[in-house]
Structure formats: structure tokens, C-alpha cells
Specification:
The chain is mostly helical. Helix content is about 50%, strand content about 5%. The chain is built from eleven helices and three strands.
């Protein structure tokens, strides 16, 4: 077998593996099969608000009961893509490495995130997570858990991530501890697919150029496009909706929101 043919076959295998991985991710984000009973809730918004009210006023509740309520509310919010913005500041109080059952709590935090949550509502929670878990004095297993949780949040709501924070977290790919380096590389791999323009050029992978369009893709079919003119990025625009629908001014330089299919060929 010639060397050129071997390279082509290896490239094809990598592409097929990437497609299978994306399919598994979308299946993992779809909770219909795992939480079939929650799909049958008559009024999920009222149900979630009622349980969250019990959480806020339940000072006498045992910790195990409170943890179960948090898990149920988070799953209902994530599954039905509800707007319960007071939930995230409530969870933020418990995002600490020494918190009891912290892994279950972080899983609930990620479950409660979805693409319809405003990034401003999640940003304080993300900052708290990074400040408490990802720093030089933290134990390696704590840092790995923190970065993995950040990745799970960004899978569901990528717009909450900023390029400066992403590039800082990407530096942990050189960590001596393997779990930390693996978590950082997984985060880099996620944004190579979602928005490579937010990464440093050396982290974008082969074949990636300096994009002038950054595209965010969501499992629910939503496509967000972020234009960058070399000076400063413009606000994101939802595909199929004008910028005026978000109270934003029209983009300068005559640029218009593009569908993903038109924005896919980079460098044009």
C-alpha cells in the first residue's frame, strides 16, 4: 500500500470517528428515552417553579432530600428547555470543592443548562466554577472535575464561554497530571468543532485558518453566527431571525447573518 493511500484511509477513519462521536453526543443530550416520565409532565414550567419554591423555602429539609429536589428540577429544566433563571444563582452557592456530594451537584448544574438560557445568566456560575476548581493550588482531581464540568456546560450552551477564559483553560493541556491534560484537550476538541476562532491559532488543528465567521451549532438545530471583522466581534445573531429581534443594531460593513451552510467554507 502506498504512503498516500494509507494517509487517505487514516484521514477517512478519523472523520468517521468524529461523526460517530458527534452522534453519541447528540444522543446523550437527548433525555427523552432516559426520562420518559418527565416528558409527560402536564405543565413543566409550573412543576419546576413549584419544586424550586420548595428548595428556596426548605430550610428544614435534609440534605439528601434537597439534593434529590435539585436533581429533579435540573432535569426538568434541561429536558423541557425552561426559563428558570433564579435556579443558577441558587446553585452557584453550592459550587465549592469541599461541598458534600459535589460531583452530583456539578452534574445537576450541567443538566440544567441548555441553549435557550441567556449567557448572562450562566456567566457568574461559570466564573464561580472556574475560580473555585481551576487554579494552581487546587488538587489535580479537582481541576479535572472543574474543566470537565465547564466542557459539559459549553456543550449545552457554548455562548457562555469567552475567548480569554477558553484560552486560559486550554493552557492546562500541558499539565503534568494526565486527567487535567485530558480534560483540557477535550475542551479544546469541543471548540474545534463549535467555534475554532475562539481558540489560539496553534490549538485550532490542521486546516483551520483565521476565520472571519465563528459559528455555534446546537443539537436542537439552532445556529448562531458571530462575525469578526478583525477589530471587534459583532453580537451573535440567530439564524432565520433579524438582529432587531434581539434589540441589536444592524451589523456594520454591510455584513448579514449567514446560515451555517454558507458560513462553512472559511477563508472566503
Amino acid at each position: 500500500m502506498s504512503r498516500t493511500k494509507a494517509k487517505k484511509q487514516a484521514k477517512l477513519k478519523r472523520q468517521m470517528a468524529s461523526i460517530r462521536k458527534a452522534g453519541r453526543r447528540e444522543e446523550g443530550n437527548n433525555g427523552e428515552a432516559r426520562f420518559a416520565a418527565m416528558q409527560l409532565v402536564n405543565d413543566p414550567q409550573a412543576f419546576a417553579e413549584h419544586l424550586f419554591g420548595r428548595l428556596q423555602s426548605g430550610g428544614a429539609l435534609k440534605f439528601d432530600t434537597k439534593m434529590l429536589l435539585i436533581q429533579v428540577v435540573s432535569r426538568v429544566v434541561g429536558l423541557h428547555r425552561l426559563h428558570l433563571l433564579h435556579l443558577y444563582p441558587f446553585l452557584q452557592r453550592y459550587v465549592q470543592p469541599n461541598q458534600r456530594e459535589v460531583t452530583r451537584l456539578l452534574a445537576s448544574v450541567a443538566t440544567a443548562c441548555h441553549e435557550l438560557v441567556p449567557p448572562d445568566a450562566l456567566e457568574p456560575l461559570l466564573r464561580q466554577l472556574v475560580n473555585q476548581f481551576v487554579h494552581d493550588r487546587a488538587r489535580p482531581e479537582v481541576v479535572a472535575v472543574g474543566i470537565n464540568t465547564v466542557r459539559e456546560i459549553c456543550v449545552r450552551c457554548p455562548l457562555v464561554m469567552h475567548s480569554d477564559l477558553l484560552q486560559d483553560l486550554a493552557q492546562y493541556k500541558r499539565a503534568r497530571d494526565k486527567p487535567v491534560a485530558t480534560a483540557a484537550r477535550a475542551l479544546i476538541g469541543l471548540f474545534r468543532e463549535l467555534a475554532p476562532g475562539m481558540l489560539e491559532k496553534k490549538d485550532r488543528g490542521k486546516g483551520a485558518s483565521d476565520p472571519w465567521v465563528v459559528t455555534f451549532r446546537f443539537p436542537g438545530g439552532f445556529v448562531f453566527v458571530w462575525f469578526s471583522c478583525g477589530l471587534s466581534p459583532l453580537p451573535p445573531s440567530a439564524f432565520g431571525l433579524p438582529l432587531s429581534a434581539f434589540g441589536l443594531p444592524p451589523p456594520p460593513f454591510g455584513l448579514r447573518p449567514l446560515p451555517f451552510a454558507a458560513a462553512a467554507p472559511r477563508g472566503e
